[in-house]
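note to self: the first set is below, dont mix up w the second
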Amino acid sequence: MMLRRRAVATVEFGLLSPVLTIFLMGMVDLSNAIIVLRRLNAAVQQIGPMATQLPIQPNQTTTPAVAQLNEASSLIFSVLPQLAKLPVYNASTNTAPPYAVTVSDVVFTPNSGTSCTAGLTCTSYTANLAWSVPLQYGQQLTRTCGTVAQVTSNAAPVIVNNLPSTVPTAAITSALTSMLVVDIVYKFTPIFGKFIGPVTMRQTAYFNQRSIVAPYITYNTAGAASGGTVCTAQGYV
């Protein structure tokens, strides 16, 4: 009788162990994914204030250079130090690491017919992209020039070229002139779930400019190894 019980227990363990192993592996990957997502959120919240603060001059004008934007965006390496060990972006070999950090500026213009001027309370705005600059070490992802669709805060962003192409400013009636947008895209590869492939994680944060003089944040392209996207057709340079 004892031998039979041991045999049954062995068979049951043999049947259940693969299921338990897969469950534990899934829990490890899920925990790692949550940790990475929280760190990406921490990074995007730190990059914005630094990017809006670095370029401010004594006269309150604001014109960041590519070096300043890269300095702000490189904060991702302090939050996710493992990224610093990966190969950097290489245009000649088309080497692209699994992350991208992009800083963009969106300019808001009151629509015609509204009884207000820029910087005062308005009921309707048109949003346009001024410029979009990627971190030179990561994937060279930039937002596209043109009118930026405004959606409600609870709406899912529209993804174009692997980046959000919208801003959650629909129905906002407070004063708007310019908004700095920070996008982070990271391809998370599960340790035990490689058969499902990488999972794309995105984090975006929005920041008002700190200058009280300039109507929007211009961008100094001098010395830029990767100038990003500058919407010269709209005059935002």
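second set (the one i keep forgetting abt)
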Amino acid sequence: MVGEKTLLSSSVNVAQYRALEAAADRRSLGKFIVERFCERYFRPITDSKSKHGFAGMAIACLVIETLESFYQGLPDTDRASKQMFRDFFARDSCLKVFAGGNDWFFKDIRCGILHQSETRGGWRVLRSGPLLDTKRKTINATAVLRGLKCAVEQYATNLQTDEKLWNKFTTKMKAVCDNCQ
């Protein structure tokens, strides 16, 4: 089948993923998920010679929603995006500073970038400075991406021992693999 040969990362195709899952090789699958996120999201920004905070923040929004869908085991996030951001930021992480506050990050950053290709509410995206400066209304995209990379690595580590997380991961990955068919 063509779908079985579809690459999920540079080193794992659908058939290989399924074999790793069947063997419950959580360590290898943790490495796989980090590889997948790094290749699809982090490296295109960090390896670029023409970095831009705005593009970095757009990618950060993709990572947040995608990673949260793995945490929750959701096949997709259709009509649940706002809740994905709420739940992700509510987790104990270095990005928890974005939690609460009437969903401003979702509305002004994520939706602004996705729907209008600009932030809203006077927010600016930079590549330096503090992670979040509410007085100046600035966000450091580089720091956000760094925090997200740590969040993905922590997820991969937790995947090795957390049974509930493992079950949700396999549910999400079933949908990912099914989408390759």
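remember for set 2: The chain has a mean pLDDT of 95.
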